[in-house]
Design a protein that fits this description.
Blueprint lengths: L64 E2 L2 E2 L1 H11 L11 H28 L14 H20 L32 H20 L3 H4 L19 H29 L3
Antiparallel strand pairs: 1-2
Helix pairs in contact: 2-4, 2-6, 3-4, 3-6
Length: 265
């Protein structure tokens, strides 16, 4: 470690670190109480002698050992218990993917109805952020981008599949090969119309899907964009789409509950 990379005896209360690389960094006698971390990558991290109280960890967790106990299987089992439909989101065959997609449609219909009711009571609520997360409309816009990227581009081979209302995930928002309208503020109905088109597109793909195709790979798409231009297992591609739909609906439900409480709903 060079002298330029040493930070000792400093007060950095309220400091903001964004798009910073710190692989192999060492933290010792550091007070991070009240810290907020979003889109932080910690593979292989080792935390010892820590005081972790009233903390919230939300993300892709695997291989996590807390005080000698492997936590991830316990978390997975509890999530399955809380959400009985969650097991459907790990389909093993083509019929399983169709069942998962149909169930997701039913669940999203309920979530959209909840958002509409909130918007009627409190106009503009579907554009409100909760603790810096995407608003309900922005969440739908991101799912449009996810469908365009993985189904339109990767699975169907359309290098220019991206709708201008789609929003990439944060790390790719500066990618010039992912065009989107940063200043757009579509109404709920406007983004739902795009969503219906994208959901129908996935349904069409699944309608013709068989187990042989599911076990195959995509053809690399020509042209810049995201995901990178290479072949992907079809099962992985569709699994990502299902997971995006499942997880972001849970995020939306969580934030709608907060917004409903604000408006007395």
């Amino acid at each position: 470690m060079t002298e330029e990379n040493r930070f000792e005896g400093l007060r950095m209360d309220g400091a903001r670190f964004q798009d910073v690389r710190m692989p192999g960094a060492s933290f010792r006698l550091v007070d991070m109480s009240g810290a907020r971390m979003h889109n932080v990558y910690l593979p292989g991290a080792r935390l010892t002698g820590v005081v972790l109280q009233d903390a919230v960890i939300d993300g892709d967790i695997g291989g996590l050992v807390v005080n000698g106990v492997e936590v991830a299987p316990l978390v997975e089992a509890e999530l399955d218990r809380r959400h009985p439909d969650r097991a459907l989101m790990r389909p093993a065959d083509a019929d399983g993917f169709r069942a998962a997609w149909n169930r997701l449609g039913e669940l999203w219909d309920g979530t959209v109805a909840r958002a509409r009711a909130l918007e009627e009571r409190s106009p503009g609520a579907v554009h409100e952020s909760v603790e810096g997360e995407w608003s309900f409309v922005e969440t739908l816009r991101h799912l449009v981008m996810a469908t365009d990227a993985w189904v339109g581009r990767v699975l169907l081979g359309d290098a220019a599949a991206y709708h201008p209302l789609g929003i990439p995930f944060e790390e790719e928002q500066s990618n010039p090969d992912l065009p989107y309208d940063r200043d757009a503020r579509p109404t709920l109905d406007e983004i739902l119309a795009v969503r219906r088109d994208r959901r129908d597109q996935v349904a069409d793909v699944l309608r013709d899907l068989d187990d042989e195709r599911l076990s195959g790979s995509t053809e690399p798409v020509e042209g810049p964009g995201w995901p990178p231009a290479r072949a992907y297992p079809v099962r992985q591609v569709l699994g990502i789409v299902v997971n995006e739909e499942w997880e972001h609906r849970l995020f939306a439900e969580r934030d709608l509950a907060v917004l409903e409480a604000r408006t007395g709903g």
